[in-house]
Amino acid sequence: MTTESPVVLALDLLGTFAFALNGALTALRVARLDIVGVVTLGMITALGGGIIRDVLLDVPPATFNDWRYLAVAAGGGLIAFVSGRHLERLNTPITVLDAAGLSLFAVTGAGKALQLGLGPVQAVLLGALTGVGGGTLRDVMVRQVPSVLSSGLYAIPALIGATATVVLTLLDVHGPATAVGAAVLCFGIRMVGVHYDLDAPMPPRAFDPRSDDDGPR
Amino acid sequence: MTTESPVVLALDLLGTFAFALNGALTALRVARLDIVGVVTLGMITALGGGIIRDVLLDVPPATFNDWRYLAVAAGGGLIAFVSGRHLERLNTPITVLDAAGLSLFAVTGAGKALQLGLGPVQAVLLGALTGVGGGTLRDVMVRQVPSVLSSGLYAIPALIGATATVVLTLLDVHGPATAVGAAVLCFGIRMVGVHYDLDAPMPPRAFDPRSDDDGPR
Amino acid sequence: MTTESPVVLALDLLGTFAFALNGALTALRVARLDIVGVVTLGMITALGGGIIRDVLLDVPPATFNDWRYLAVAAGGGLIAFVSGRHLERLNTPITVLDAAGLSLFAVTGAGKALQLGLGPVQAVLLGALTGVGGGTLRDVMVRQVPSVLSSGLYAIPALIGATATVVLTLLDVHGPATAVGAAVLCFGIRMVGVHYDLDAPMPPRAFDPRSDDDGPR
């Protein structure tokens, strides 16, 4: 699946690298970590979504079993460890690469679920989960409410990209162009969200949560 | 398993709905969440226990693969999102429904484990885990020590209901009446615990934990 | 795998017991827990690493399916619950036992991964994960940044022990002596780290994380 074509493989490895780099930098910003922590959280961000997807599909985790993904993810984490402070200035390209990773993972995740015979609703959820699962695991491990649950447009573009993949595949319009189109759609919505600082809808007449960012519960 | 009979299916879906509603409301009370967060945490509360059980059984997660459970769980989360503040007044019926869900999940979880050939101890643990696993995942994601580990009678009625299921099944007294009896036992203990505000035993000469409820996050 | 020989079984059960005891005591120190919480967190510390390994290997979790491991893990948790305050004085022997558990789990975890046909890199990672996974799960559940990610030498000896196991096995030098040698190596490095209070390398020009150590951890 992840090795279908050299182009998809290259893009997938690039997305993995971006996720690891961005994930490790995000973790470094909120917790005191040593080298084990930085590299581990980079790898978890990069590979966690695909691993959760494959566990839910009850198949062996594909990226974990492919040393190239492990090496690229570890490399991203190591670079963040060594030169974290300098990379802070590269915030914009890293955000763009991260959005590319999100788009690719959502599309390839939904595609893999369909190939394994899951229903369309499950394929959409698994596609989105492939994109957002790794960052969610990382946030939980550094004691943050996962940002995907609280702010920004991150899960929504992933859900839309996965839905486009599933709909087009069910209409029998599959092939590389379909995947690219769905990924571009996800990427575009994500970047619009970043640029205009959009959030997903909040509850009406907001609750007054007792233990969010500043207080004990 | 989950589709054995229309009555069990209806009860199971009702329990799923109650878990999603209660889970999403609980999450809203302690963290600032957007619509993605509220619906996701409702679904995780409702489906997480069964998914953990099926992962430990090494079988594909049944409720995740059944769109009716996904729809009911998402519906519960959405209702909590839209009308959370009003539902706060319905605290008692929601607690009762949640206890019903706990009872059903503990009994059906233990039953599924036995059917798949697990030993009695494992079946009891998996039954209880089906009941309490989803809420535990939710609590971790909103940065709470899982309430099931710290206060109230929640795991204990689930363990008792699962034990009753296993003992009666091993005595060859199975069938719908057994399941109903075990579920009623669990439900009764849970409601007695709620009514009298009972807690499970605490450690003797309590420790003085450094970072529990009164420290900064 | 875990029942290969009576000696390995006895050592493995002893390691499980040490992990459960140490894990439950650690959890008690940082969170207000009832009996369910203490025993659950002891069991999660003891069995969690092996369960994560087996989920990633896509095989049924071996220790969960063996009532002896469940009983020993629950026993360790119960002893911590009943006599936690007195055990605080036994800090040194418990640390030594915990290091022994870490060493055994890293070596047997890497060995199991190799036996199931995983590659050498995966086997090293799964060995280390078997050793550190349970404590990581526990820390997340009591709202701590996992100590393995932030300080001390814990993952590194596990990685070295697992690497030694994999290298020696690939060189066809396997057998009990190999396993013992690799475990002793891991144990030695861990105890040197404890004795001299060594930490893994921290990021250069440390970040100033916003939400880490100013709270009690």
TrEMBL record, chains A, B, C:
Record keywords: Cell membrane, Membrane, Transmembrane, Transmembrane helix
Record-annotated membrane-spanning stretches: 6-28, 35-52, 67-84, 152-171, 177-196
Task: Supply one GO CC term from the record.
Answer: plasma membrane
**Stored Pfam families:** Gly_transporter
Compartmental location: Cell membrane
InterPro entries (alphabetical): Gly_transporter
Keyword Transport recorded: no
Membrane topology of this protein = Multi-pass membrane protein
Q: Which residues form the Glycine transporter domain?
A: 10-82, 96-168
Please give the family membership noted in the entry: Belongs to the UPF0126 family.
What is the protein's given name?
Uncharacterized membrane protein YeiH
Q: Which organism is it from?
A: Geodermatophilus poikilotrophus
